[in-house]
Amino acid sequence: MRYDEIVIGQSASYTKQVTDDDVMAFARITGDFNPVHVDEAAGAKSRFGNRIAHGMLSGGLVSAAIANTLPGPGAIYLAQTMRFTAPVRIDDTITVTLTVTELLSKKRLKLSTLCRNQKGEMVLDGEATILMDES
Amino acid sequence: MRYDEIVIGQSASYTKQVTDDDVMAFARITGDFNPVHVDEAAGAKSRFGNRIAHGMLSGGLVSAAIANTLPGPGAIYLAQTMRFTAPVRIDDTITVTLTVTELLSKKRLKLSTLCRNQKGEMVLDGEATILMDES
């Protein structure tokens, strides 16, 4: 999508399941082996009662939503804020909803970034700032 | 580390190289196949002149730093802000530096989160809000 095709209020969504393989691979890539993510016993003992996915993996789904849908390939990430509002459990299906909230100068825009699980519970909310790399 | 052992100004760091395998695995986990990350030709044509890592992969290194060093295992991520200030290139070595900036009520704390590459250039700055899960 080109910058001059984008309007405030425009929205897009992206859905992906978070599998055990995804969580274990995310741990290996980053080195984040926090027991609550990778250890069944630690997950069971935690406030969540089960292992949960890394919050930043949901952040990765936001990044994917931006790259795949709005504005799509060529988007350059400038900034992101995130609140992790509920845990993502293994095999949850997460839907990211993006909505354009501001058009800034120099082909920059702001998007609200909301992630919900298959029950409709919000697991992440935040805001992305994107630059469109159009030469 | 226990909440009552933490003081404002306390600092810790975590270092990891970002390999091509890491970038390709991050793309598969999230579904973020933005060409600037996975396609040599698109990277060469971009403003960066080369493929770059996903910004959110650096976010994952911040998550790992928190889980591994300060406050360490049991940390629960509540929020993160991030500005991506320079690109991370394949095989860059990223050092995350965490510094405690605030102690909040209910075993919560704020950390500044800074990522630098092997040349000392800042690639990410931001702030994390963490809850310590001590029962």
Give a structural overview.
The structure is a homodimer of 135-residue chains. Chain A is an alpha+beta fold. The first copy, chain A, contains four helices and five strands; from the N terminus they run E-H-H-H-H-E-E-E-E. Chain A has helices at residues 20-30, 35-38, 40-45, 55-68; strands spanning 11-17, 75-84, 93-104, 108-116, 122-132. The first copy, chain A, has a five-stranded antiparallel beta sheet, covered by helices on one side. In chain A, a hairpin with a 3-residue loop joins strand 3 (93-104) and strand 4. The two termini of chain A are 13 Å apart. The relative contact order of chain A is 0.23. The mean pLDDT of chain A is 95. Strand 2 (75-84) of chain A pairs antiparallel with strand 2 of chain B, so a sheet runs across the interface.
Task: Give the helices and strands, then pairings.
Two copies of one chain form a homodimer.
Chain A: E1 11-17, H1 20-30, H2 35-38, H3 40-45, H4 55-68, E2 75-84, E3 93-104, E4 108-116, E5 122-132
Antiparallel strand pairs in A: 1-3, 2-5, 3-4, 4-5
